[in-house]
Amino acid sequence: MRVLPAEEADLGEILKIYAEAREFMKKSGNPTQWGDTRPPIATTKRDIAEGRLFKITDGRKTVGVFAFILGDDPTYREIDGHRLDERPYGTIHRIASDGTARGIFETALAFCLSRCANIRIDTHENNLPMRRCLARTGFEYCGKIITDDGTERLAFQKRGE
After folding, report:
1. More confident residue, 118 or 75
2. Domain count across the chain
């Protein structure tokens, strides 16, 4: 699989992947994390314009998407818990798969770790598939944060080698 910068021409595919991810979340007992409208289209367009949205392809089609943001993330400024450290970090947001390929998260994580050895991510308490994935890939639970929409998330961090 390859990771490539998302382009405006990819918007339709990306929105379809996000819709599929919302349905998967609902079926997995997590109907509220993204609801019916997250991530907002405006956020997706901004992520593309700012060069922080990436697509994962299997050589034929886009099978996954994620945002990777280097630097300070306002949602991580305050935490009910602890951080592993305060070194510069990158944050993975809005990661989703179309459900046809395995290893989407691992591919995204390897890409991100190649650019920054300190990664943060958060997820909803009810997102059990993501929580299992984070545990499997060595993320450590750090505490709770409040997102930009005012809802609580579980925060995790991983330090690379």
Report:
1. 118
2. 1
